[in-house]
Amino acid sequence: MRTRVTASLLLALALTGCRDVPPPDVEPSGPPPRLAGTPSYDAGQEPASAVLPLVPATATTLTVTDLDEIRAQLGVPDLTSDDPMADRSDFWRRAETEAPLLAQGLLRDDNSELMLDYGFTQDDVDWEAHFTGPDGSGYVLGFREDLDMTAVSRAVRDGVGPLAGAEVDETEHLVLSGTTADGAESWATDAALVGLVTEPTEATYARRGCVPLADALGPDATQQDQDAVLAEYDVTDLDPLDAFAVAFGDHLATVRMAAGRADLFDRLRLADDWPATPAPAFADGFESGVGDPATGRIGYSVPRPPIAARLTLLETLPFGVCDEVVPIPEPSGL
Question: What pTM does this model have?
């Protein structure tokens, strides 16, 4: 069992950051360099870091849900498909209402078939990663180390549900789809990303680049919503954002960007006047933000982890906006 996420880990930000501390002077920088070498999967790392060599370099977003950590947080650290169905159903009921699930469990809809015909279920998955990008999407499932993977290989060969077309690494206890076999062409060599996902978390969202302002305002945002924000803040004064990550743990969230950001407080304050509609609004999931420009971190209290997770998946994240403005098209009425 990996080390449990603790409040002290994420609250360390509050000890180093203060709204009244002036931001550091930073020099403009060019595009982030790529790191040398050919990284490979390392099961000894935290899932969000371990999966990076498998994520294609062209991917733009990555989510990692550490189900093993969430089980520990909910008091059932050893739960597997060997446990009674009532216990497993209770875990998912609680996880959906108490945890920051960035994935709902890829195999859950096929649990009955998988259990009856192959002897495993979603409850044997320790962590689950999904990525998206212009070249397509993919996933990685990390199964518990003591599971016999031959049954998983049979289910993949038989094309059960989302396992159709996937590959199995029985040695590493992984099922992979859409991943890269070349670690040199993966997220693990992107200097803007590798330092953002090293800590233990319940769930992690990582993004290359910034979120367009219209997207950050929500799926139903209007030009009026965008104009209201721009009346208070000139987002074109923000510095470019190469990448960021949101790490969830113990009703807290830590946003990580590059260290030494002169615009971090400006990004933090954007949420003060963010539209409260449509629901859920950013303030419904993230509260009491505290920033530390020196380390490039923002810490939030997360009173409702499922709502915070939903907002993150929707990219309703004011701190992550781009430093440019694109008009929002008027509804066509069709």
Answer: 0.89
